[in-house]
Input
Amino acid sequence: MENLDTDFQYRLNLVKYNVEEVVTEGELESLLKESRAPRCYVGYEPSSRVHIGWLPWMLKLRDLQRAGFEVIVLEATWHAWINDKGTPGELESYTEKVRSVLAKLGVSPRYVRSEDLLSDPEYLRLLLRASKNMPVERIRRAVVVMRRRASEIEQDFSKMLYPLMQAVDSVYLNIDVAVGGLEQKPAFLMGRDVVARLNSRRLVILGLPVIPGLRADVDETSMETTDLIELYSEIKMTSSRPDDAIFLEDTVEDIERKIIGAYCPPKITRFNPLVSILKHVVLPYYGKIEIETTRGSLTTSDPAEIDKIYRAGELTPDDIKKLCIEYITRIVQELRVC
Output
């Protein structure tokens, strides 16, 4: 019994590592006790340029694979088309880059194309069933993940289909655990309801930290007055703002220039992009990092410790920038895709 309990705790710790929110923890624990090989997935929109803001979900898939999960990656080309990222044909050509990065990280998922889902009449039936009795306002709320204004939705009804498709993906693929950034919470919560209604299953959600764009200047007032989901959606690192993101094709000079110019207020950790990168990209990638503080050298694997020493002024913005340049340059060189 002791070995079983130890194994359970090991798997649970792996699943929850670098996760901001679990919906729900009790369901996750029950799932791990009931099944040795539950099924998890992430859906992503292919892009011609892969950036480090994607590494939290990529590294989380590695954790889940080590915890005994069957890992599924949905290459959401049609979802990306709805989101005005390119034609389905163009988008499909980008998927090899993500496959290459995941392979370098040791992740061996089953890949599913959204083209295959939409070609199956059963998926379309599920989409219609999911839309039945679904309030329009709830769908509008879920569309915030796409950073779309109400006027855009009025001109393009496909934007309303996006969160419904995201919900149905979980049903169609028979998923136990959905993985995604916290900004996707409204869509995932809707997915939980759809899964429960159509599939009589529990869908556990792992909400991952959002890596802010490098120039995401968030003042204290907006932290308190802005809807957090909208704020996450607005500030997250994205390829549509090239100077906000560090791409796996960036040169050493690109990385240095972007990090030196990044928003990094002293003693403030919340929504600080460089502190977020250290905590949620570098630490999960390497497991621990070495830091020179005003009190001497420190080796840590604890993200809370980084917060503590930065808020105390034992690390300055210049210190953080030097650390990020050093570690991110190494990560980009190891994972580089051209």
About this structure: The beta strands are 21-23, 39-44, 70-75, 110-113, 177-181, 204-208, 289-293, 296-300.
